[in-house]
From TrEMBL:
Gene3D superfamilies for the chain: FAH, Fumarylacetoacetase-like, C-terminal domain
Family: Belongs to the FAH family.
Organism for this UniProt entry: Virgisporangium aurantiacum
Keyword Isomerase: yes
Name of this chain's protein: 2-hydroxyhepta-2,4-diene-1,7-dioate isomerase
An individual GO BP term: carboxylic acid metabolic process
Residues in Fumarylacetoacetase-like C-terminal domain copies: 63-265
Keyword terms: Isomerase, Metal-binding
Annotated signal peptide: none
Record GO terms (molecular function): isomerase activity; metal ion binding
Length: 269
């Protein structure tokens, strides 16, 4: 199923996106459900054509946990060794934006890069999501979405630690929806950048089979550091090809089996 969070004339709701996989947005509808989609799904009977609503980031998160250097070629393109265990860091919840929201380039940075990623959304498990083994980790995964781990690369290098470089408002686009029941062992992850309406340049093209640490390993590892709560998001790493964004660009992250997440790029007012 595809779960979205959206704004409609009556307010904000969660819903199920209906229509054929890969169909254009104009052919899709969204059916409202009565609460956050971690429990039994109950439809309210209200539906909208997808173009008539505004998609938001698909979930509320207490935290976004990110994994660095989880593709060998990406580690090497920045002159780094591949970590011997997952390298994790946090993005604040205030960095999260949704589809078509603007990535705002801060004046402190001269180089802001895109990083296309598959994101894991944590759901409700049989108990607290802490100190999980691999089997238990798989049971707390609710679904998956697209993410862009936007990074002020110059600040990442100068600071030596990554909080400022990764944490600006608008630096964590998520969406367009959460897909459940998806086999993520070998999916294409793609990033395209270009002016709106023009032919975009393919910057990143990788596959999840090339992750250094697979998804159950990542969820288990993080849960041995911090308790994972329903709605928390884990970004699983980016393939090679990261590069700069400039005002006027549109950046699109596509993950096979999920969909596409597009955001315009602007300067900070």
């Amino acid at each position: 199923m595809r779960f979205a969070r959206f704004v409609h004339p009556g307010g904000m709701s969660f819903g199920v996106v209906e229509g054929e996989a890969g169909a254009p947005v104009s052919a899709l509808t969204v059916a409202e459900i009565d609460k956050i989609p971690f429990e039994e799904v109950r439809y309210t009977g209200k539906r909208w054509a997808l173009p008539d609503v505004r998609l938001l980031a698909p979930i509320f998160s207490s935290k976004v946990v990110c994994v660095g250097r989880n593709y060998v070629e990406h580690a090497h393109e920045l002159g780094n060794e591949v970590p011997k265990e997952p390298l994790i860091f946090l993005k604040p919840s205030t960095s999260v934006i949704g589809p078509n929201d603007a990535i705002r380039l801060p004046p402190q940075s001269k180089q802001v890069d895109h990083e296309a990623e598959l994101a894991v959304v944590i759901g409700v498990g049989p108990g607290p999501a802490r100190r999980l083994d691999r089997a238990a980790a798989e049971k707390v995964i609710f679904g998956y979405t697209c993410a862009n781990d936007v990074t002020a690369r110059d600040l990442q290098k100068s600071d030596g630690q990554w909080t400022r470089a990764k944490g600006f408002d608008s630096f964590c686009p998520l969406g367009p929806w959460i897909v459940t029941g998806l086999d993520v062992s070998d999916l294409e992850v793609r990033c395209e950048v270009g002016p709106p309406g023009a032919v975009a340049e393919v910057r990143q093209l990788g596959r999840t089979k090339d992750l250094v640490f697979d998804i159950p390993t990542l969820v288990s590892y993080v849960s041995h550091v911090m308790t994972l709560l329903p709605g928390d998001v884990i970004l699983t790493g980016t393939p090679a090809g990261v590069g700069p964004l400039t005002a006027g660009d549109a950046v699109t992250v596509r993950v096979e089996g999920i969909g596409e997440l597009t955001n315009p790029v602007t300067t900070l007012d």
